[in-house]
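User: Some background: our group keeps a shared notebook of sequences we're curious about, and every so often someone picks one and asks for a predicted structure to add to the entry. Today it's my turn. The entry only has the sequence so far, pasted here. Could you supply the structure so I can complete it?
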Amino acid sequence: MENLKRLREIVLEKSFMYNEDSPFRLSSGLLSPFYFDCKKTTLDPEGSCLIGELLFEFVKQWPIMGAGGLTLGADPLGGALMYAAWKHKRKINQFIVRKQLKSHGAIKWVEGNIQRGDSVVILDDVITTGNSVIEAIDHAREDGLNVFGVLVLVDRQEFDGMNKIKKLVPNGSVTALINRTEIMDIYNEITKSTPKNLHHLECCRACNG
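Assistant: Of course. Here's the predicted structure to add to the notebook entry:
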């Protein structure tokens, strides 16, 4: 699929860093030689368009009314999917799962045009330990939603995150558009063919913070 191939290229260009000698500290506190800053892809116009179309391909046959996840990582994915679905004449409402329970008005975890009993898909940009997705699943279920599946942009293939999630969604609709192995394969090919150019790219990323 050309869309998926192009999305992998964007993830590598904008969101991926690799350093065996100086591991990155992740939000979980764990160390890893791999780092994905997926918001640089999900908030990119081309990246967002591709993500929306690819997510819709997965869910177009699913009996879901909404898509979303824990703010902030899931938010751009939910918007991209909602827009792509609408273009294809399918209504899938985006929702946002709060990190803290709303304390006034209608006290709830989930915000959006979604109702108790609706089937939904949980989204996230990257899976490490799986804790953000698990939290979103728990809160969605607390608000009466039926979690039909889970879709993520990148599976880091570390710390058993995807397997933890699969245990909570028994129908098996848990997948990632891209995994770390696929990105590393492209990275290694570029390293072999154009090491100087790749080194320049990494230096530019470091300078741009």
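Suggested note for the entry: The domain at 2-202 is CATH 3.40.50.2020 (Rossmann fold). Residues 33 and 81 are 31 Å apart (CA to CA).
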